[in-house]
Design a protein that fits this description.
Elements: H1 4-9, H2 11-21, H3 27-59, H4 67-101, E1 122-127, H5 140-147, E2 150-151, H6 153-159, E3 165-166, H7 168-188, E4 192-193, E5 199-200, H8 202-207, E6 219-220, E7 226-227, H9 232-236, E8 243-244, E9 251-260, E10 279-289, H10 294-311, E11 316-320, E12 332-340, E13 345-356, H11 358-363, E14 366-367, E15 376-377, E16 379-387, H12 388-398, E17 406-407, H13 413-416, E18 420-421
Parallel strand pairs: 4-9, 8-14
Antiparallel strand pairs: 1-11, 2-3, 5-7, 6-7, 9-10, 10-16, 11-12, 12-13, 13-16, 14-15, 17-18
């Protein structure tokens, strides 16, 4: 959530950011709602001050049976009635304003290039050269089904479309990748492993920006809990409503969890295979920092995510997302895109974003420096380190052999206990 005072003091920058995002926000209505709630609040404060003054005056009236005392009491009662009425109007105006403000996207970092959609993202760097096959490379789902280890048909009977059952060595590969990623992030990059809940309250979803704007993208249970779209939600909320000691920052966390997304609006996209599922597994990286160290921590988080691809020797590139493709909560986002031979293109495997204090304001997560009178909002960031299912896809397609077997990347062999996946 943005600071309304910052918006009013930087109105042109705010409008420019909205324009660059192609975001349709009624700025005049926002300002009207702010003026309305402030007007009610001032009236409420004036009435409360008047009541306090008249109550004190009543206290010095000696004759409690006099008309003076009775009239003064009556006047205070009338003010109390007005206060109750204005208080209700103030609370309603405050809710309307906060609901409107909560639907406004974050301010873009000045380094974000202006562009309408993903076609105008900027490639920052590339790693590796796509392999040249002496045979026609097959898609991961063709390989997996031929191996007898990837079952979409039965999964659809059990759960519906966009689900998969992995079996045998592909199920083991999923576990091996998660273990490798967590080991690297915790032992070499200073992230602390967390095993969070995968059901969260609406407040947690609101705190990280999934609600209210993106309710259709997630699954809600009958008792009002939400299945997490990513472990960013429970992990980032670990500091909600807290005032932290800056000596404890940065806090770096890594978690391996199932993630759930309704894929609303993705009809017809990636209908085959594991690219876009309702349930998938991901190693998520989350960092909570001070304002001063946030850019350094963001670079550290991206290095950790990319290192997974480097060590797996998977060709990939890093792209800086343009304004029209940057997510609602993000100030700036970099995507890591892995090469998929069967599609003959790069596909996103990790999205790393920095949010500034946008999420912290929603969660009321702060820190206080020794000697400072006021608190400051923490800065938050996260990224996939990596999406495990898409990493399986990338390994299968890049390391496939003509006979349909899959060579295991060297560093994973100790986790797998074999050097090849093949039909038994």
């Amino acid at each position: 959530m943005l600071d309304i005072n910052w918006i009013k003091n930087n109105l042109e920058e705010f409008k420019t950011s909205l324009k660059n995002r192609n975001s349709d926000v009624d700025v005049n209505l926002m300002l009207e709602l702010d003026d309305k709630r402030r007007s009610f609040l001032m009236e409420l404060q004036t009435l409360q001050q008047s009541r306090n003054e008249k109550s004190k005056a009543i206290g010095i009236i000696k004759d409690k049976e006099s008309k003076e005392f009775f009239d003064a009491k009556q006047e205070v009662n009338e003010i109390n009635s007005k206060i109750d009425s204005i208080k209700n109007l103030t609370e309603k105006a405050e809710r309307e304003f906060l609901d409107f403000l909560s639907r406004i996207p974050n301010i873009l970092d000045k380094k974000v290039p202006v562009g309408k959609d993903e076609s105008e993202n900027i490639v920052v760097s590339t790693f590796g050269t796509p392999r040249k096959f002496d045979f026609q490379p097959r898609a991961h789902f063709e390989l997996g089904e031929a191996l007898g280890m990837m079952d979409f048909e039965q999964a659809a009977k059990i759960s519906g479309s966009r689900f998969v059952n992995l079996k045998g060595q592909l199920a083991r590969l999923e576990r091996a990748l998660a273990n490798f990623m967590l080991d690297m992030h915790t032992k070499e990059f200073g992230f602390q492993e967390v095993s969070p809940s995968v059901l969260v309250k609406s407040d947690a979803m609101y705190g990280t920006g999934q609600l209210p704007k993106f309710s259709e993208d997630s699954f809600e249970t009958k008792n009002g809990l939400w299945l997490i779209p990513t472990s960013e939600v429970p992990i980032t909320n670990m500091v909600a409503e807290k005032i932290l000691n800056p000596a404890d920052l940065p806090m770096r966390y890594a978690a391996y969890t199932p993630c759930f997304r309704s894929e609303a609006g993705s009809a017809g996209k990636d209908t085959r295979g594991m690219i876009r599922l309702h349930q998938f597994y991901k190693v998520e990286l989350v960092t909570i920092s001070t304002k001063e160290s946030s850019q350094e921590e963001y670079a550290h988080l991206m290095r950790a995510a990319e290192e997974v691809l480097i060590r797996l020797e998977l060709p990939h590139r890093k792209s800086l997302l343009c304004s029209g493709d940057t997510g609602f909560t993000s100030q700036q986002t970099h995507d890591l895109e892995v090469w998929l031979p069967a599609q003959n293109c790069y596909r996103e495997i990790s999205s790393c974003s920095i949010f500034g204090e946008f999420q912290a304001r929603r969660m009321n997560a702060r820190y206080k420096k020794p000697g400072d009178k006021d608190t400051s909002f923490v800065h938050t960031m996260n990224g996939s380190g990596l999406a495990v299912g898409r990493t399986i896809v990338a390994i299968m397609e890049n390391y496939q052999n003509q006979d349909g077997s899959i060579t295991i990347p060297e560093l994973l062999r100790s986790y797998m206990g074999c050097d090849r996946i093949e039909r038994l």
